[in-house]
Amino acid sequence: MANKRDYYEVLGIQKNATDDEIKRAFRRKAKECHPDLHPDDKEAEARFKELNEANEVLSDPDKRARYDQFGFEDPMAGMGGGNPFGGMDFGGMGGMGDILEQMFGMGGMGGMGGNRRNAPRQGADVRYDLRISFEEAAKGCTKSLEFYRNENCTTCHGTGAKPGTKPETCTMCKGTGQIRQSGGWMTTVRTCPGCGGAGKVIKEKCPGCGGSGRTRVKRTLDLKVPAGVDDSIVLSKRGEGEPGINGGPAGDLNIRILVRPHKLFRREGNNIRLDVPISFTQAALGAEIDVPTLDGSVKYQIPEGTQNDTEFRIRGQGIQQLGGSQKGDLIFRVRVEIPKRMTDKQRELLRQFDEISTGKEYEQSKSFFDKVKDLFN
User: Which of 121, 116, 122 is nearest to 176 (CA)?
Assistant: First the structure.
């Protein structure tokens, strides 16, 4: 145990590293010392074993917690094992075959990966950006979508071969799609270079798809957008993506909602905010004003002496909760507008008002000047 290096040091990460950081560090380090890339290098083989052991412990929350508490003295750790990878199970360790395939083009190790390219795989998802108005997002709507996806070629029915012919079994891999090579304690499985892992070779390609077996097809779909959707929300239509491969399920159509800004309204959760201009006489005397909502204008009584930036709330005039029935509120802020141009008569009337004012009408000014007097007295 004394010769063992700290697992965090082996992976080159901090003790507070996240699961994603551990995964990325392992992949990077594994690529640097994998025995297949360094044949007959005993030092690289030893580093790879050490790296796998560290990753096995730190990628498991329970083992990591015990290691952080007890270090190498934990009797329940179960580390080491009899195989050269410290007891690691390549078949169940978070897709180890996928990691090796991404790094080295392998389908797995020791034949455990199987013919991954010929296995059923889900079709690719299709992304679609849908722009709708503020009102459509608030109340819901139905939209007709036009999108493209890759589908099986109707000329060759997905085989990629010219009509009247068919793909032939690859002679290099005998149809398995993989080439196996044994060396020492490790069996390497890599993708067959003759067929690209398909197991079959197309001698005469289909003129409709060029041998790919797929063509780009335009499709239409009616989408019901629910009331209350917000900007950047993604709605998924299951099975409307590209068809699966080798009998796998189809992908999804993912529609990202893009809501156009409104000229008056601003959304805040399920509430709507709005600025309403009023005159200084309406603010001083009070008035009934028209307040716009998504369902038309409503009457609202502004009280006498309303100050600039005062906010008022109209219940239930907001946006419907997504997937629910409750609605938010409309919150409007009054903006007291001071006239920039006045007639002589208007100026005279304002002067008369100012002359007969006692000062008690202006609470903020009175409070301010009282504080000034206290400051200098």
Answer: 116
